[in-house]
Amino acid sequence: xxxxxxxxxxxxxxxxxxxxxxxxxxxxxxxxxxxxxxxxxxxxxxxxxxxxxxxxxxxxxxxxxxxxxxxxxxxxxxxxxxxxxxxxxxxxxxxxxxxxxxxxxxxxxxxxxxxxxxxxxxxxxxxxxxxxxxxxxxxxxxxxxxxxxxxxxxxxxxxxxxxxxxxxxxxxxxxxxxxxxxxxxxxxxxxxxxxxxx
Length: 198
Fold this sequence. Notes:
The chain is of the alpha+beta class. It contains three helices and nine strands; from the N terminus they run βαββαβββαβββ. The chain has two domains: 94 residues, Pseudouridine synthase I, catalytic domain, N-terminal subdomain (Alpha-Beta Plaits); 82 residues, Pseudouridine synthase I, catalytic domain, C-terminal subdomain (Alpha-Beta Plaits, 2-Layer Sandwich). The strands form two sheets. Strands 6-5-9-8-7 form a five-stranded mixed β-sheet. The radius of gyration is 19 Å and the shape is globular. It starts with a strand and ends in an 8-residue tail after the last strand. 17% of the residues are buried.
């Protein structure tokens, strides 16, 4: 049995998040459908480094799965991209040790939020950037970002619907905001995030 790690990107606009949900289009269901086709009907389960919500995009999401097939990495990538829809793309496929786990071996995760700060919204950015026409105080925003850096109990920032058991302590290595032209970017980088935390 081989274990493969895949790095993928996707446009989450038309997905109900990463995780499988009954009668909804999700990233996991599309990837598993492609893998099932490659395995001639045998279901293959994928495990992710994290689960994104409805409408959230990913640049480098990591998943892993086990397979009896012995195919070179580049052929795996080519085959999966041929079977996946246009809004999902495998960037890299590699064989990993059997002890590897996409979620538990993740070192850090990063979220980036983009705000269009103009008087009128750009309809072509509506799936990728939040629109806010109000004047932003960037210095106050930067000061607020610094308050979140470090190790804290983020229980108050976690959704009441979370299923996470145990500690809600997380470490944020970097939280920063900056503005270039009319676009504000806010970056959250840490060892993990609670449900709806960011």
